[in-house]
Design goal:
Largest sheet: 6 strands, mixed
Strand order of the largest sheet: 3-2-1-4-6-5
CATH architecture of the largest domain: 3-Layer(aba) Sandwich
Number of helices: 11
Distance between the termini: 53 Å
Number of domains: 2
Number of strands: 10
């Protein structure tokens, strides 16, 4: 396996194309930075390290990133942040800060933003989402391309990125918090993924390939939904009821997400309640509500601080 050649073949990185690499100092981001330099050239690559100052090793991690960037002749930007008391989930907050800082750095340079997510991360993400929230989207995982965000290592395992670093004489830092089983994703890493490898040594690669196939199929389903709506922001309830339930659920979700401007994972599960509603309104969750009037379904934003009660002749369970 030639990781460098295989990443080049993905066409996510190009010679001379500006790229900002999120650099934690771990094996995956170190591997990514080296690969980016080899493909795009050192002059096109810059790195961003976010120092959360949450661990005693944070200073050493930053120094390691500085030394690595000097070695590879890459410009490094360091973002120092402090966690607010009301930040909520630590890992979610850190991810949002990291991606926000990376997006700003990439925009300032007219560059893509690259993260070091691997096939191992993909398998963990899919397993976690399957456990935490039902639905087809859980199986889609992370995309190799998401706007300006690219994940060039998504087809490779952590063992492969470690092997690349070792072969190139590149040291990395291990984050002990990744082994803390207090975090659900870490439990998936420590328990579920090793169990999959015991079932089949190519388990991670198979999960990644499955996610790629499902993303392609999801694009087809999106076109079917668009055709059913034909550019309208509403649909006749009688028409909705006559459609296959799977397609009807997708249409409800599309209308909800267009109205709310965000993902509405729970909307599809309200199909039966919508069909039984009659004229009235019902909460779909995630900031959307279904409104049925004169036989037509429209979805609107839920007013701030309010949920939409069921109205009309019939009520349904919330």
């Amino acid at each position: 396996m030639d990781l460098l050649a295989d990443v080049r073949a993905t066409c996510l990185l190009h010679v001379g194309e500006p790229i900002v690499v999120l650099l934690s100092g771990g094996r995956d981001s170190v591997c990514l930075l080296d690969v980016a330099v080899r493909i795009a050239g050192a002059g096109a690559v810059s790195a961003l390290h976010v120092n959360y100052d949450l661990r005693a090793q944070a200073g050493a991690d930053e120094r390691h990133c500085r030394a690595l960037c000097e070695q590879l002749r890459v410009t490094l930007e360091v973002e120092a942040v402090q966690r607010p008391r009301d930040a909520g989930n630590l890992q979610a907050w850190a991810r949002d800060v990291r991606l926000g800082a990376g997006a700003s750095a990439a925009a300032a340079r007219g560059a893509k933003l690259a993260t070091g997510h691997t096939a191992s991360d993909q398998a963990e993400t899919i397993l976690y989402r399957l456990a935490a929230s039902p639905g087809r989207r859980a199986l889609l995982g992370m995309a190799e391309r998401d706007g300006l965000l690219v994940r060039p290592l998504l087809r490779f395992t952590r063992a492969q990125t470690a092997a690349h670093c070792t072969a190139g004489g590149l040291a990395w830092r291990d984050d002990a918090s990744n082994d803390d089983l207090a975090y659900a994703r870490n439990r998936a890493r420590a328990n579920l993924v090793p169990a999959l490898r015991q079932l089949h040594p190519a388990a991670e690669a198979n999960v990644v390939r499955t996610a790629q196939l499902l993303r392609e199929e999801a694009a087809v389903l999106d076109e079917v939904v668009a055709t059913a709506l034909a550019g309208r922001d509403h649909i006749e309830v009688a028409h909705l009821a006559a459609l296959p339930p799977a397609l009807a659920r997708l249409i409800v979700r599309r209308l909800a997400e267009d109205a709310a401007g965000r993902l509405c994972a729970r909307a599809a599960g309200r199909l039966e309640a919508i069909l039984a509603l009659g004229d009235g309104a019902i909460d779909l969750g995630d900031g959307a509500r279904a409104v049925v009037s004169e036989g037509a379904l429209r979805v609107k934003r839920t007013p701030a601080g309010r949920s939409a009660p069921a109205a009309g002749g019939r009520r349904s369970c919330a």
